[in-house]
What does this fold into?
Amino acid sequence: MTIHHLNRPLAIKSLGQDGIFVGYASVFDTVDSQSETVERGAFTRTLAAWRVKGSAPAMLWMHDPTAPIGVWLAMSEDAKGLVVQGRLALSTQKGREAYELLKMKALTGLSIGYRVVSSKIDKKRKVRILSDVELFEISLVTFPANDKARVDEVKAPRRRVATEQKRKPTARGQSTRPGTDKEKTRAVVSRLNHAAKTLKQTTKKGK
It folds into this structure.
């Protein structure tokens, strides 16, 4: 069985103390340096299989199976790509190192480890289109191969977020402008939090 790696860059907007971050592990219809692109829906089957298991792909350091650095709390496909929510294991040495390197912006990419289940060749563009993949792990890596997928946000501790929201209530009649980056990020985080709860409930039922 051949395991392939597809690299994506990340960019940090802020870094919270709990090590939770949100971003894209893969972006659809974007050709990487290996002349491959992932088609929307390519992760549908593998994500469903992980949900049945009540588990998730591994979060690794540089694709090293002996170096887990945290856990993926939730992941799902949206119109853009494979959006993921993860938490670094800050009580471990590797987790703390990853946290510090993210804070320094020394880490520049995400990379997925996968097996190709189904693909097709676009002869006109000379590109291999991945239509179904089996996802094994997602790693933090140093050198990305594509500049589209990014870690959009590293969340602050929930207690701090709740305090800030309490201090800054929205005035009656006031609304945020639709389509802003912050609004989109909140929507993604909301979906991932729901997915994380579903995953947790599935795990309890399977025990």
Summary: The longest helix spans residues 181-206.
